[in-house]
């Protein structure tokens, strides 16, 4: 994105008063508008009542998309991350959360050794949930490409501005008030929602990618999501008992496209995204796979270079 566009985006965010809650790997920022248009169309066209984002990650959709006619569910396996969203929702936890992050906000206070301890403690089930949320935010802020794994001296050197953090999180206390946050594997809420004709389920699992007909998992996620996990998920989506509308985000890959070839899923180009771990500004095309047809007028144009995918 050009510096001017970046500036315009920041101004727009400030005007809306809504910022992403936490930096995360695999964020969907560049595709938000397109995906929201697709969700909105699906909800109105099919008269739906409930929307579940079952791999929340950075929780972009419940942050920027509010459709007043639907109930909202957000699910994430990572306990620290989910506890962070719950703590924003709960006025009793909110103060403790921001004060806790404040304790680690001074530039250069957190060392690589501390960071490695925080990584372990935030995932330890004996750590209190709000403490895990605090550590998760600190580890996200001080890691390279927000991957919560590799310490970044530069970011730890900058510290965290607590007044900016509060300005960013306070609007979210209201925005999240009706979201039911769950800390499960996606399959638990999926099995409930899939039977409902009035549900839209959005699935954004750690991606698969195909190189020279060889499909592999993308790296960087602490909770591994194997090719076998993808197959189980896809088979659930295309099964007879799945009555809900389902949209799955992924890169183009042979495993998913095989379901398209067999007429079980639809595939659509939704935009170009930065490969966050590349550090080079490299972009690649993103796709959605759905179990219902999406009309062309809600989709972006396919750039000429990517027409060969179809
Ligand atoms: C690609 S990211 C989601 C990105 C998110 N849509 C965003 O815009 O920030 C995938 C997320 O799924 C979570 N995850 C991994 N395995 C999971 C599982 N079995 N069930 C639920 N969430 C899982 C990871 O912790 C990660 O936060």
UniProtKB/TrEMBL annotation:
Keywords: Methyltransferase, S-adenosyl-L-methionine, Transferase. It comes from Paenibacillus odorifer. It catalyses: a 2'-deoxyadenosine in DNA + S-adenosyl-L-methionine = an N(6)-methyl-2'-deoxyadenosine in DNA + S-adenosyl-L-homocysteine + H(+). This is site-specific DNA-methyltransferase (adenine-specific). PROSITE patterns: N6_MTASE. Belongs to the N(4)/N(6)-methyltransferase family. It comes from the Bacteria. Its EC number is 2.1.1.72. InterPro entries: Ade_MeTrfase_dom_2, DNA_methylase_N6_adenine_CS, MeTrfase_D12, SAM-dependent_MTases_sf.
